[in-house]
Specification:
Its EC number is 5.4.99.-. The protein is an alpha+beta fold and 288 residues long. It contains six helices and 18 strands. The N and C termini lie far apart (54 Å).
Length: 288
């Protein structure tokens, strides 16, 4: 199984510059990956010859990065995978609820990572599972997966929209700018606290029913349970989120779905916009 190669052409502004400087600042390759490339046989080449990081590069040079093979110990598991987008560098899937993203002590073979491993092996690919965004087990929606370390490091800005249904009637759009920390007597539950980490959630009312309000959330920060904690703090916990005071009357998992992602493609720089339909169990709540 061959490694993935990345090719970069040296522009005029890097003519006669140090190779390491070119890789770091023009190619956006991390210092850690550069170190791995140096230790990899023919990790960096020019004209099929080894290129050292201390060498200079010149305008028009074709510098090839031979990415090291990934180690992968995740057990492949056959399962349904809803692929929204895929190319040689990125895989975006629509994760169903009740599925963990990564293996844990109690979930060794039934996670998204396990199913992606099975899927990739069937395509004669094998890469370390690197989720750019992480969502809770019970949260559904889009998950962006990088197929190599370079891509994972390159996608630094990932815009996300979440659709949620809250208990109660939210009157107007708003912003929650309240710090969050782990509750002292819990290993999981978060709470609003002045001495917590900065957390900012914007929400917009989309629809409502007598019992529930559908909102669209965007985040300035990415704290664990941020939307769940913030909406509970306002007095409008997510439906089905009993951990934060939500009602289980009409849904058995938190009504939260990652419905949209936008990012610049790490190779082409093309703007990628992807969307996922809100699942039936969440939309149906507005019948009540």
């Amino acid at each position: 199984m061959s490694r993935k190669n990345l090719t970069f052409i040296v522009p005029i502004e890097y003519d006669n510059k140090n190779c390491k400087e070119f890789l770091k600042y023009y190619c956006n390759i991390s210092a850690r990956l550069i170190t791995r490339l140096v230790r990899t046989k023919m990790g960096i080449t020019r004209d099929n010859q080894l290129l050292r990081t201390i060498d200079n590069v010149y305008v028009g040079d074709k510098v090839v990065i031979n990415l090291p093979n990934d180690s992968n110990e995740i057990t492949p598991t056959k399962g349904e995978l809803n692929v929204i987008y895929e190319d040689d560098y990125i895989l975006v899937v629509d994760k169903p609820p009740l599925m963990p993203v990564h293996p844990t002590k109690n979930h060794q073979t039934d996670t998204l990572a396990n199913i992606v491993r099975y899927y990739s092996l069937n395509k004669n690919e094998d890469y370390t599972f690197r989720a750019i965004n992480r969502i809770d087990r019970d949260t559904s929606g889009l998950v962006v997966i990088a197929k190599n370390r370079f891509v994972a490091n390159k996608i630094k800005s990932l815009y996300k929209e979440y659709t949620a249904v809250c208990c109660g009637n939210i009157v107007e759009d708003g912003t929650v700018n309240k710090n969050i920390k782990l509750k002292e007597d819990s290993k999981m539950v978060r709470e609003v606290s002045d001495d917590g980490a900065k957390a900012v959630t914007h929400y917009k009312v989309i629809d409502r029913s007598p019992s529930y309000t559908e909102i669209l959330c965007t985040l300035e920060t990415g704290r664990t349970h941020q939307i769940r904690c913030h909406m509970s703090y306002l007095g409008y916990p997510l439906a089905g989120d009993d951990l934060y005071g939500g009602s289980l009357e009409h849904i058995s998992r938190q009504a939260l779905h990652c419905s949209k992602v936008i990012f610049a493609h790490p190779i082409s720089n093309e703007k990628i916009v992807l969307e996922s339909n809100v699942p039936f169990d969440i939309k149906y709540l507005l019948k009540y």
